[in-house]
Amino acid sequence: MTSSVPTNGPCFYEIGLKSNFSFLDGASHAEELVQQALDIGLDGIGLADVNTVAGVVRLHASAKQKGLAFRPGARLVFADDTPEMLAYPVDRKGWGHLCRLLSAGNLRSKKGVCTLYEEDLLEWCENLCFVAIPPPLPKVADAKAFKSRLQRLLPALKEKLHLALTPRHDGLDRKTFAELEQIAHSLHLPLVATNDAMYHAPER
What we know:
- The protein is an alpha/beta fold and 204 residues long.
- The chain contains six helices and seven strands, in the order E-H-E-H-E-E-H-H-E-H-E-H-E.
- The chain has a seven-stranded mixed β-sheet with strand order 1-2-3-4-5-6-7.
- Helix 6 (173-187) links the parallel strand 6 (161-165) and strand 7 (191-193).
- Helix 1 (30-39) packs parallel to helix 2 (56-66) and helix 5 packs parallel to helix 6 (173-187).
């Protein structure tokens, strides 16, 4: 999300955005993210701060004022080996489930911490759409472990689960994407493109 040149290509939503409500991770205010999205010609954005929906109200207000499509969500980071997930409600009931899921993690933790486990995901997954965020996959063993973890979730998440392709610009993107495409094909998971944006401008 750092280019200032508008695009005229296919419809593209940047999902998985982090705002400054992702403490020590996201760097930009809601208004800055919305304006940059408009400047580069995005059709919409999806906010997903880490284990919180605290930034949703500000970003929704800014997006509505500027006429930009917006999807509220959260990035679920777990305390066990469950893969990171972008979680987006499909309706009002799904929003309630996302809030209950995050509340469960907050209630068992000290203030300012949200501790989530796979059991929380499985209990509150109804009416939510998920995008699994893969870790770096430099070794075959890492890819196999990630696939195994996704496979474990499939009976509960089924058609609600997608797999993210996120460039890391580490020289291994082509290899990593090929491995992820194989995983997606074998598990029948749709692929979703995201840039994992954490700021609206590199100087931030």
